[in-house]
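Pasting as-is:
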Amino acid sequence: MVYGIGNPLIDIIINASDEDIARLGIHKGTMALIDEERREELLQMVEDRNVSYSCGGSCPNTIIALASLGVETTLAGKLGNDSYATIYRERLASLGVRDELVCTDKQKTGSTIILISEDSERSMNTFLGANRLYEAADVSEESVKNAEIFHFTGYMWDTASQRRAIERALMIAKEHHTIVSFDVADPFAVGRYHKAFLHLIKESCDIVFANREEARILFDNYDPYECCRSMGKLCRIAIVKDGNKGSFIAHEGTIIKIPPKGTPNPVDTTGAGDVYAAGFLYARTKGMDIEASGMIASILAGEIVTQRGAQFSEEKAKELRILLESGGWRYR
């Protein structure tokens, strides 16, 4: 079982014109953190539009992708006591993810309002809400203890209570030999917690994912190969993703180059890193070697960027599951 603690964010997806985006004072194509007042303002201004919902958040994306491939998964986090929480829970259940999401009356469910313009550009407005109140007491010792892998992301370092929750989970994981998987997830988080992340990687993590920019900030080096080598000295398995150039994996002093898979012209790279992590963790739960794990990660990341959004459709997930289980992925 893969156990993830993350930020469950309900994605509220709305089509909008460039005029709408300009009127709302949004910088097109960017991601902005917003407060509750701004969230209500955006929702009111687009309340007459057609809206679709999906489960979002970096760690949830990874957990959902794993579940779609047939891996037993559990997601922990915090929701508000509102209709968005109900939608999120129902969607998770339909996707086959067991949830340990706790509710609070003190904040509303976290959300990302995604405005999609006519050229398919996504402008994202994220309200963290109840996520920020997740705390150590919310962590299930039994779930961490019984998991094969515990997965979390750098976003959890943004509040003291979330950080303490992760530290408690890491302590339990260490005591019970649960494999710890950490996705650095955000260059801005690395900038804020540079020293803390280096210490975290060295002391607590078995598998670490970073993209080229995150690795550059961590190790003050523009060469992703050298960054991977440096990170490989701190943890058992270090992975640096280099966009459409592929990725590097360091393991026991050896660095493996994983080629990119899929289209050179992506439709939407949102969630590609989350799905890469899912592919790698999937392969590890199946006992595959490092290179095979990297190849499967690269294949899945190459597939997700051919569509909009960070989750595979039921049909696509079934197709990929057959590909992986049959061994057909080796010929991709």
